[in-house]
Specification:
Helices cover about 35% and strands about 15% of the residues. It is an alpha/beta fold. Helix 2 links the parallel strand 2 and strand 3. Helix 4 packs across helix 5. The protein is globular, with a radius of gyration of 24 Å. The chain starts with a helix and ends in a 22-residue tail after the last helix.
């Protein structure tokens, strides 16, 4: 009887061990198989398509859009707390949709490995970027996932240092008129400093890039970006413009330098991504700048070795920079905003 019981227990242990071993082998096979496929295609056509000419744009008119949601990307640091408090004071002066917060956090080693295996991150991304850059890239990606899964047609996505500019106090930023009918993404922290009157006209296709501290994305645009940004190889606010359907490689001048420098030398580190449009492409437009970033209000007015007081005086006199400067402008170059 005792022998039979011991034999039964031993057989059970053996079968469990065999089952666990089989499961481990199966997982390893799955991981290695997917890894081989991922590393083989990471610099190829699956993730980064080769450059192709812009698709002809068939704009059939304009529409009025209503923005019903806003996502602010922030961290749990004291600096972020200060920036968010400034953002909330600024936003309270205008008509904006309800704000929700998405907390950015750099993934740990196991989380990053899992995300890289899933194809969300390029395996070498963490070797060349800081935790802050990685956490922002992931948070912006997660923001697009939220929009793609949600029911809102248009959603604002802000970094925590966004600030309204060029808009009269109390101005409506919930409704935008004259938006191109095929628009899927509006770069609202870019382009022209002129007084906003509720219209997004005249709109221009986004060609080159950066300055994505504030953006408007449609549900369909977010669904495309969730696909186009994988695998993430640079901070998303830097490379978003490369998903624009109108983007073309810039061989000379400022935009060429931007492509090379702001991609953080990615071509050397991750061959195969230079001059690549992200796919599927998104119909991106800009027009009047509606937002800027708190930590960078002075460049439109700064020339030479001007003091901050001189820059402030010029900006508030509206002789340069914004058509309507931030009503609560302060010295944002202090450490609390960096």
């Amino acid at each position: 009887m005792a022998i039979s019981a011991r034999f039964s227990r031993g057989l059970t242990v053996l079968l469990c061990s065999l089952g666990a071993f089989t499961a481990i082998v199966a997982l390893l096979a799955l991981f290695l198989g997917n890894s081989r496929a991922y590393f083989t295609t990471a610099a190829g056509a699956k993730s980064w398509s080769t450059y192709d000419p812009p698709v002809p744009r068939n704009i059939t008119g304009t529409i009025t859009i209503h923005i019903t949601r806003a996502i602010v990307i922030r961290s749990r640091s004291n600096k972020s707390n200060a920036r968010v408090a400034s953002l909330q004071r600024n936003f309270a002066r205008y008509k904006l949709p309800p704000v929700e917060f998405l907390y950015a956090k750099a993934p740990g080693y196991l989380s990053y490995t899992w995300l890289a295996w899933r194809g969300v991150f390029h395996p070498k991304f963490k070797d060349h970027h800081s935790d802050a850059q990685i956490s922002l890239a992931l948070a912006m990606y997660e923001a697009f996932e939220r929009v793609a899964r949600g029911s809102d047609s248009w959603v604002y996505v802000f970094e925590d240092d966004a600030r309204v500019v060029n808009v009269p106090l109390g101005g409506d930023l919930v409704t935008l008129r004259d938006v191109p009918a095929d628009a899927e993404f509006l770069a609202v922290s870019r382009q022209h400093n002129r007084v906003h009157n509720g219209s997004f006209a005249p709109a221009e296709p986004v060609i080159g890039g950066g300055l994505m501290q504030a953006l408007l994305v449609s549900r369909e645009g977010a669904r495309k970006l969730v696909q186009a940004l994988k695998p993430i190889w640079a901070p998303n606010d830097v490379i978003l413009y490369k998903a624009g359907c109108a983007w073309v490689p810039q061989p000379l001048g400022h935009q060429s330098a931007y492509d090379l420098e702001r991609d953080f030398g990615a071509e050397k580190k991750m061959p195969g991504i230079k001059n690549q449009r992200l796919q599927p492409c998104v119909n991106m437009y800009y027009s009047t700048r509606l937002f800027d970033q708190t930590s960078n209000p002075t460049p439109p007015c700064r020339t030479g070795n001007m003091t901050l007081a001189q820059v402030h005086e010029r900006m508030m006199a509206r002789t340069c920079g914004y058509a309507i400067p931030p009503e609560d402008w302060v010295d944002e170059t202090t450490s609390i905003y960096r």
